[in-house]
Amino acid sequence: MKYSKKMIGKRVYLSPMSIEDAEIYVKWLNDFNVTDGLGTSNNIISVESEKEWISQNTSKYQLAIIRLEDDMLIGNCGLQEIDHIRQCGVVGLFFGEEENRSKGYGQEVLNLLLNYGFEYLNLNNIMLKVFSFNERAINCYTKVGFKEIGRRRQSYYLKGRYWDEVYMDILKQEFMTKGTIHNDI
C-alpha cells in the first residue's frame, strides 16, 4: 500500500508523503491555478527537486491529502514553523485539481491538522497566511474558526495588481470550545 492512514476524517485521510507522487506534485506546483494562491508562481519545480524536497520532509509534519473513497492523492498539507517553547505553529494546505476544491475537504483537513497540532504536538496557537483575493480559502478558514489577526498591505504582486497578505489564527481553547476536537480523529 502506497499510503498509510495517519489521520482519518469522514472523506479524506492524511498520510506521509510518497516519493512516488513527485510527478503529480510537480504538475500541480507548476500550475498557476495552484501556485497563484500559494505565492510560488515564480518558481519552476522539476521532478528531481521535488523528489529531493519530499525525501527531506518525510519526517516532518508534511502530509499528503488522500480521498478515502478511492485512495486518490488530491493535495498536500502540513504544520510548519513549529515552536514547542512558544507552543505555536503555522498550517498550510492546497488541492491540486479544481474538481477537489469547494467540496468541504479543506475544512476536514484543517480540523484533522488542528486536532493533531493541539492534542498531539501540544500547540496553543496555530496561524496561517492567505492572500486577500482568495475569498474561497478565507471562507473555509473562517468556518473552521480562524480569525483575522492582521494584514500586510499590498505585499503580494500578481498579474499587474497588489494584494494583501491576510494573517489568521486559532487558539486551542477556541478550537476545543467549537467542539471539533475528537479523540477518534
From TrEMBL:
UniProt superkingdom: Bacteria
InterPro entries in alphabetical order: Acyl_CoA_acyltransferase, GNAT_dom
Span of domain N-acetyltransferase: 12-169
Full protein name: RimJ/RimL family protein N-acetyltransferase
Organism of origin: Sedimentibacter acidaminivorans
